[in-house]
């Protein structure tokens, strides 16, 4: 049986036909991959064909551009219409008043101009509190300044506020974007029907890449390494790569659960907690935060940001003033690399061009591993997926669910033998990376005996060691204290018959 036939047989409704060379009009729409695949699934027939005009009519009606916002505001406020469209929603619950408001960050609509009435909140709250930002079909209306005939529960507390009689955009209804229930057990069981090499190709297709366009398996696996923070909590990685290898696309378009920040100014308030607005930053509610084009990022206060990062990367918590926060987002640094440094294959100082905040060994040591992005080919047409593949929206939801599954770490703890006196950070880094590989490539494994010594060593353990070893070598170049220090001699537990 051909791989695509087996894929459709095992995953059925979660498979879509993707042809990125023939559906370039999606690029013009600036839709992320997960929304594009949702649309394809909605309009495709069994042969992967769809009516382009019908799809575009739906997009025009329900997926507005930023330029359409003024027209939408006119319909809501002036024409007194209720308007439905797909959008990313953020929720804020005022600590002092209990008032619930929402924001549409893609359209610049802030919390101060909105309100969610209590009866709507009661119906929608389970969906709206699932993350920092939630995608879904919103229905918006308007409550005029004169519309005070009905008193809402929390408004009894806020009637004396300056803006208590200001007009507000109201949330009339909300329907979660995900149109199906994620069955993680079914996904794990389906993996058993595929060889490891087949599964690698399937994952590449799920994130929009054509496996046939890669020359070596190492290229494929290096590409998939970028997905490790998608499946493992607080996995911190650094990647330097030539331009055009798809860093921004993968981290910014594949998953609705992550955040990509490209260049510009980054502050502690934006990253962790804004005291003036009493609002948590990017790190809270995201599966990962990627700082792309990291060479071009500047920080408002280098010492302040470095201290905050060191605390968070180590323990997963942060303190800003009196506020103590906890998060599980991974941190990913992405940057371009000069050819002469790349040619040294990790044996020269690769961090010399990073912002000053990262020129400290104690901070770099808290990053678990390094991705050699020069092993990933530059993006070209034959690397774009063309054929049946896992729905990106489904796959990103699966990866999100896998983050909370602790059984894989228990398996890794059983398999990796740690020698006496091993450095704790090295041990944690190797185990965390190996766990992420296990989740990504072998989700069906339920015990240490379910995976062979050879496959665990090749696809999980050895790759984790190499990624951590690059960090160790770079630490030696940054700080003489780390020079010449090797990784502990970890080994793998073998079971009878292996």
Question: Quick recap of the structure?
Answer:
The protein is an alpha/beta fold and 498 residues long. 38% of the residues lie in helices and 20% in strands. β2 and β3 form a beta hairpin.
Please describe the structure with a list of short key phrases separated by commas or semicolons.
498 residues, globular, Rossmann fold, alpha/beta, 20 helices, 18 strands
Annotate the secondary structure layout.
Elements: H1 3-11, E1 15-19, H2 25-29, H3 33-43, H4 52-62, H5 69-78, E2 83-93, E3 100-103, E4 114-115, H6 118-128, E5 133-143, H7 155-158, E6 168-176, H8 184-191, H9 196-206, H10 217-225, H11 228-231, E7 237-241, H12 247-253, E8 258-266, H13 268-271, E9 273-274, E10 279-280, E11 288-299, H14 302-315, E12 317-320, E13 323-326, E14 330-336, H15 339-342, H16 361-364, E15 369-372, E16 386-390, H17 392-402, H18 407-415, E17 416-417, H19 424-441, H20 453-478, E18 491-492
Parallel strand pairs: 4-6, 7-14, 7-15, 8-11, 11-14
Antiparallel strand pairs: 1-16, 2-3, 2-5, 5-6, 9-10, 12-13, 17-18
Please, could you describe this protein's structure?
It is a single chain. With 498 residues, this protein is of the alpha/beta class. The chain has three domains: 66-176, no CATH class; 216-376, 3-Layer(aba) Sandwich (Rossmann fold); 405-492, no CATH class. Helix content is 38%, strand content 20%. It is built from 20 helices and 18 strands. It has helices spanning 3-11, 25-29, 33-43, 52-62, 69-78, 118-128, 155-158, 184-191, 196-206, 217-225, 228-231, 247-253, 268-271, 302-315, 339-342, 361-364, 392-402, 407-415, 424-441, 453-478, and strands at 15-19, 83-93, 100-103, 114-115, 133-143, 168-176, 237-241, 258-266, 273-274, 279-280, 288-299, 317-320, 323-326, 330-336, 369-372, 386-390, 416-417, 491-492. The strands form six sheets. The chain has a five-stranded mixed beta sheet with strand order 3-2-5-6-4. A five-stranded parallel beta sheet has the order 8-11-14-7-15. Strands 1-16 form a two-stranded antiparallel ribbon. Helix 3 packs across helix 17 (392-402), helix 9 crosses helix 10 and helix 18 (407-415) packs across helix 19. The two termini are 30 Å apart.
